[in-house]
């Protein structure tokens, strides 16, 4: 009996030592234990990639890297990051060749977890949903959860505090009585309204401004809108239209035909699907346009 007890005690001590450097994180699946900070990370989602780069973590692989480099207001993607194929169908062959110790999947990619788990440990962060109070609030939560994976929680919290301080400064410089509508022109030449559940809509509220149109929450926080819809409003809100540079002349003419030129500003394209720190970039763009 004594020998068995000592053996069990020895195993317990070994287990405790093995877990001494271990830590727990939370993702959209639940809780996971890590014995050490991952070093070779593959991401399959651009929102995740945005967060990683802003945390100072450079993955070994990411999807559609050439396209990502064309997005506005995104962190610089180092040349060392390997392309793993499409976001909707990343290449298992390319991922396996990178020998990752962690794969991080994002919104709309839950079904990738099982096949990719044959290559390496997989964690999942869902950043956008119509069930979230706002996707902007969820972005902050996900930022801290991702920081915990890389033991960068203190840095991430300090960054959020600095962002909040700057947001307050921007809000203080704006007229709080303004009613604003935020629109995005798609590459196909259609208009999308940024609602409360979008990242820009969340920023609008954070800046103390009033949205000129309220629509039900959607997955990405956007809904279709036309210039006729704007012309039919009983009020005349300030409208910020973010559009690709190649479409500015087209939209300027269309707006003039609807007699809305006095109320609509056409601005450079916005990327509304970034991580938590992209909220500040959106706020800077909005506040600059409304001053």
TrEMBL record:
UniProt signal peptide: 1-20
GO biological process, one term: iron coordination entity transport
Pfam families according to UniProt: Peripla_BP_2
Keyword Signal: yes
Keywords: Ion transport, Iron, Iron transport, Signal, Transport
InterPro entries: ABC_transptr_periplasmic_BD, Bact_iron-sidero_bind
PROSITE patterns xref list: FE_B12_PBP
Protein's cellular compartments: Cell envelope
Boundaries of every Fe/B12 periplasmic-binding domain copy: 40-291
Any one cellular-component term (Gene Ontology): outer membrane-bounded periplasmic space
The family this protein is said to belong to: Belongs to the bacterial solute-binding protein 8 family.
Name of the protein this chain belongs to: Ferrichrome-binding protein
Organism annotation: Oceanococcus atlanticus
Lineage, opening ranks: Bacteria, Pseudomonadati, Pseudomonadota, Gammaproteobacteria, Chromatiales
């Amino acid at each position: 009996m004594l020998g068995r007890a000592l053996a069990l005690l020895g195993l317990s001590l070994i287990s405790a030592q093995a877990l001494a450097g271990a830590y727990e994180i939370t993702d959209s699946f639940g809780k996971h234990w890590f014995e050490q900070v991952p070093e070779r990370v593959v991401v399959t989602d651009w929102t995740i990639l945005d967060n990683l780069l802003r945390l100072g973590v450079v993955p070994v692989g990411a999807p559609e890297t050439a396209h990502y480099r064309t997005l506005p207001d995104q962190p610089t993607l180092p040349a060392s990051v390997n392309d793993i194929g499409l976001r909707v169908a990343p290449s298992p062959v390319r991922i396996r060749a990178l020998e990752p110790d962690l794969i991080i999947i994002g919104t709309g990619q839950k079904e990738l977890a099982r096949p990719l788990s044959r290559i390496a440990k997989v964690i999942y962060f869902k950043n956008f949903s119509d069930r979230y109070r706002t996707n902007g609030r969820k972005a902050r939560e996900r930022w801290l959860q991702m920081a915990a994976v890389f033991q960068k929680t203190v840095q991430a919290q300090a960054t959020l505090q600095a962002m909040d301080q700057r947001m307050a400064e921007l809000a203080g410089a704006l007229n709080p009585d303004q009613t604003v509508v935020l629109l995005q022109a798609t590459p196909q030449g259609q208009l999308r309204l940024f609602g409360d559940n979008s990242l820009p809509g969340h920023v609008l509220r954070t800046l103390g401004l009033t949205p000129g149109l309220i629509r039900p929450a959607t997955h990405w926080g956007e809904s279709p809108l036309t210039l006729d819809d704007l012309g039919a409003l009983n009020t005349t809100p300030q409208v910020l239209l973010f559009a690709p540079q190649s479409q500015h002349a087209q939209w300027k003419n269309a707006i003039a035909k609807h007699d809305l030129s006095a109320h609509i500003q056409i601005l450079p394209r916005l990327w509304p699907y970034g991580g938590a720190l992209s909220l500040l970039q959106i706020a800077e763009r909005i506040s600059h346009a409304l001053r």
